[in-house]
Design a protein that fits this description.
This protein folds into two domains: 105 residues, Gcn5-related N-acetyltransferase (GNAT) (Aminopeptidase), CATH 3.40.630.30; 157 residues, Aminopeptidase (3-Layer(aba) Sandwich). The two termini are 32 Å apart. Helices cover 29% and strands 31% of the residues. The protein is globular. By secondary structure, the protein is an alpha+beta fold. Helix 1 packs across helix 2.
């Protein structure tokens, strides 16, 4: 049984999404989404999605990119997933080696990778020279059984809108996203400066749901938001929840997310997912208050090339 690693083709989108869903069921993955991501990758990211196949069947995937938006140069990332029923054939090692070779060619010297916090996965990372760093949790909320907290009263001067209300000019949401992304916990920082790319890859992303994305507005200016993604199959994901630093401590992120979850349930969503850095105690406390429970943990690993 020979494993072949190759670049993706347009017709691979369904198989790619199936492997991602099987390996990481707490993240949304659809054929339309992965095809969109391939087509809209930033040229400076040198992204190169790969698949591993056996007898024409896709059994593994790799996503790799150069972190062109990081403040420091030389940083890359690679995430490898193999279908749980097709492990042990060497697909993961082949995908990782091909990914590292590509990133080395574009002068990446530090590689980060997310690894599920399970003994086989961590052992795989260690064998290939990756050392553990920080961890993050996947959380799940059953919208059919959980009693969501009631919608709180909105403070004077605060208005709740949806992202759809900014369709004519999303730039204020871009500015808010850039502010909150700048100090998001993580090993690799990111700076949002390319509005056109943000429009193409975030605002127009097939999973982004502007009707369920809620925004807290003060004096006409967006100051907190909860970005929603949906896959059309009843699954909802909180892609990002954040507040302008000047307006933190007023409960605006919780307010926005409460409205978003109520809208999601009313729209027929049955499961809600989100992710939190393990060190982000304030956001973990908010999600616990909503009723989310940790369903998996992953550990960020790092390797220095050369």
């Amino acid at each position: 049984m020979t494993v072949i690693v190759r670049d993706v083709r347009p017709e691979d989108a369904e198989g790619f999404a199936q492997v991602r869903h099987a390996a990481l069921p707490f993240m949304l993955a659809t054929p339309a989404q992965v095809a969109f991501d391939w087509a809209h990758a930033h040229p400076d990211a040198h992204a190169r999605p790969l698949v591993a196949e056996v007898d024409g069947e896709i059994i593994g995937t790799a996503q790799l990119r150069y972190a062109h938006d990081a403040p420091e140069p030389g940083v890359g990332s690679v995430n490898v997933y193999v279908h749980p029923e097709r492990r042990g054939l060497g697909a993961g090692s082949l995908l990782l080696r091909a990914s590292e070779e590509h990133l080395a060619e574009v002068d990446a010297t530090t590689l980060y990778s997310w690894v599920l916090d399970e003994p086989p996965n961590r052992a795989f990372a260690e064998r290939h020279g990756y050392a553990p760093r920080r961890s993050a949790h996947f959380l799940r909320l059953d919208l059919t059984a959980a009693g969501l907290p009631p919608l709180p009263e909105t403070s004077a001067g605060v208005e709740i809108r949806t992202a759809a209300d900014f369709a004519a000019d999303p730039r204020p949401l871009f500015a808010l996203d850039a502010l909150t992304t700048a100090d998001e916990p993580g090993d690799v920082g990111a700076e949002l400066t390319d509005y056109a790319h943000w429009l193409a890859t975030t605002w127009n992303h097939p999973l982004f749901d502007p009707g369920l994305t809620t925004v807290a507005v003060v004096d006409g200016r967006p100051v907190a938001f909860s970005a929603a993604q949906t896959d059309g199959r009843g699954r909802y994901n909180s892609a990002m929840t954040g507040t302008d630093p000047a307006f933190r401590g007023r409960g605006l992120a919780k307010l926005a997310k409460t409205h978003s979850l109520h809208r999601a349930r009313a729209a027929g969503c049955t499961e809600a997912f989100t992710g939190n850095d393990a060190g982000n105690a304030p956001m973990l406390a908010i999600n616990t208050w909503f009723g989310y429970e940790v369903c998996a943990t992953e550990v960020r690993h790092v390797r220095t090339l050369g």
